[in-house]
Amino acid sequence: MSYLKSRCDEPLVDVTLGQLLDDTAARWPEKEAYVFRKQGMRMTFPKLKEEADRLAAGLMSIGVGRGDVVAWVISTRPEWIALCFAASKIGAVAMPLSREYFLWYNNKEITQHALQKIKSKVLVMENQPASEHFEGTIPFLHKMFPETRSCKTRDLTIKKVPILSSIVIIGDRTHSYV
Q: Reduced to 3 DSSP states, what percent helix, strand and coil does the chain have, rounded to the nearest 5?
């Protein structure tokens, strides 16, 4: 937890982001935490807490713990918010990565170096179909990490990024592992 000491009449709040969500959900059970107009989705604080708790449990089940880095390449969608809270609830480091940088530049060495540099244990990606500028999530992962072609669930070992132990792909209402 960060701590800043300076002259101020208001004391710093001594809670984590996860605790803040829990407190807010209990205090304002009917209030909306966010609205995603494009997806037609509204979420109250208690529902966001429930989703963050579920994601935190999922992250812990694949070995994420305090201090581990959870990186993600996701567009602006509801999962982004819940994932940030989920990581904070277990003491993991939330590391959102730029989609444009990560996907569109399509440079294997830069991508692997970036994940190695930040010591990402888990990479969460949005399942995107092929388009004019992008080959699709699964072909992209196979190109970036050839080991994903033959690995089994929960048995990922990538030579260039040895700390990366899981890649989670999210899609519309479905979740899967590579």
A: 40, 20, 45
158-163: average pLDDT: 86
Runs of H (alpha helix) within the chain: 17-27, 45-61, 78-89, 99, 108-117, 137-144
CA distance 122 to 95: 10
- Banded model confidence at residue 57, pLDDT cuts 50, 70, 90: very high
User: What average pLDDT does the chain have?
Assistant: 84
Q: How far is CA 3 from CA 16, 30, 34, 56, 67, in A?
A: 12, 32, 28, 25, 17
Q: How far apart are CA 10 and CA 91, in angstroms?
A: 26
**Which amino acid is present at 176?**
S
Strands 93-96 and 69-73: parallel
Q: What angle do CA 71, 68, 75 make, to 5 degrees?
A: 15
* Terminal CA-CA length for the chain: 33
